[in-house]
């Protein structure tokens, strides 16, 4: 059986319920894994910062302080290479791709 994954975004990845134990020495840097809405917001803010555009007003308000994924959102000035989008989960037991519950 051949499984083909199609990536629409450059920094897209799949979550998997498989786990493994790795040494702390393998960690190179911190990364951010975000939902589609969070990724689009990050890309829009990054593009505006690069082009020097200052928004007159936000069209979508920033998440409230009680937002449960507040720690997962990349801060202003985060390296775009360390921000990844996760829209789907690969279930290796059933060999199928599921929608990410986030």
Describe the structure.
The structure is a single chain. The protein is built from 1 helix and 4 strands, in the order E-E-H-E-E. Strands 1, 2, 3 and 4 form a 4-stranded mixed β-sheet that branches. It is of the alpha/beta class. It has one helix at residues 36-51, and strands at residues 12-16, 32-34, 83-91, 96-99. The longest helix is centred in the middle third of the chain and has 16 residues, at 36-51. It is globular, with a radius of gyration of 16 Å. Mean pLDDT is 80; it is low at 1-5.
Quick structural gist:
The protein has 102 residues and is α/β, with parallel strands linked by helices. The chain contains one helix and four strands; from the N terminus they run ββαββ.
Rg for CA atoms: 16 Å
Question: How many strands in all?
Answer: 4
Please give the oligomerization state of what you see: single chain
Helix content: 10-25%
Number of helices: 1
- The dominant shape is globular
The termini sit apart by 29 Å
Pattern of helices and strands: EEHEE
Share in β-strands: 15-25%
Average of the residue pLDDT scores: 80
Q: What composes the largest sheet?
A: 4 strands, mixed
List the helices and strands and how they pair.
Blueprint: E1 12-16, E2 32-34, H1 36-51, E3 83-91, E4 96-99
Parallel strand pairs: 1-3, 2-3
Antiparallel strand pairs: 3-4
